[in-house]
Amino acid sequence: MTAVDDRPQTRDHAQMSLELFEQLATDAERGEEGLRFEFLGGKLGVQPMPDSVHAAMVSWLVRQCMQQKPHWDLMTGLGLKVETYREGRAVPDGALVPEDHFLGGPGVAWAEPDGVLMTVEVTSYDRDTNQRDRIDKPRAYAEAGIPVFLLIGCDSGDVTVHSKPVDGRYRDRHTVAFGEKVALPEPVGMHVDTQRLVDLGQSGRG
C-alpha cells in the first residue's frame, strides 16, 4: 500500500458560481448533446457520454456487485456533491450504496455523499482523462469522505483501488493489471476477478 497525495499544489479561483454550474448541468441533461457536466476544483468539466467499451466495463462491475452484494446497488448517472464543504459536483460512473439508500430523500439533482461506500470511474481516451480521473476525482471523493474509490484504466490496462480517506486524500492505493484479482477493502469487502476486463480492453483498442 502506498500513501499518495492527490491534492493540487494550488487552487485557482472558481470559473463560475456553483449556482450557475448547476443550471448549465440541468440544461445539458435536458438537451440532446449527450454531455455530462462536472464542477471540480472550481472548474467546469464537460465529458462525452461513455462509449460501448466504457459502458460494458461498468455493466461488468454491476454484475459483480449483484452477485456478491445483492442488497447493495451500484448506481450509474448519479450526481454527487463532493470536495470539502461539498463545493464540487461529480457524476461518477458508479456509486455503490446500500439498497434503496437514496429513496425517500428530497429528490435533489445532486445527492449528498453520506452513505456512499464506493465510487467508480472508467478512464476514457480523451486528453483530459489523466487529470480528471487520476488527480481531480480521487481528491474530490477523498475530501467527501467516500471510503473507497475504484479506477478502471481503459488506457493503462489496470485497476487501482484507493482507500482510507484522511485529510482530503486517500492514504492507500493499490494497482493490479487487468486479469488479476483485486480486493476491495471494507466497507465494500469484495474480491473481484478482472479477467473479463482483458477482453474488453482489447476490444476497445481494436
From TrEMBL:
InterPro entries: Nuclease_put_TT1808, Restrct_endonuc-II-like, Uma2
Name of the protein in its database record: Putative restriction endonuclease
Xref: Gene3D superfamilies: tt1808, chain A
Record key words, sorted: Endonuclease, Hydrolase, Nuclease
GO molecular function, one term: endonuclease activity
Classification via Pfam families: Uma2
SUPFAM superfamilies linked: Restriction endonuclease-like
Residue intervals of the Putative restriction endonuclease domain: 19-189
KW Nuclease (keyword) present: yes
Presence of the UniProt keyword Hydrolase in the record: yes
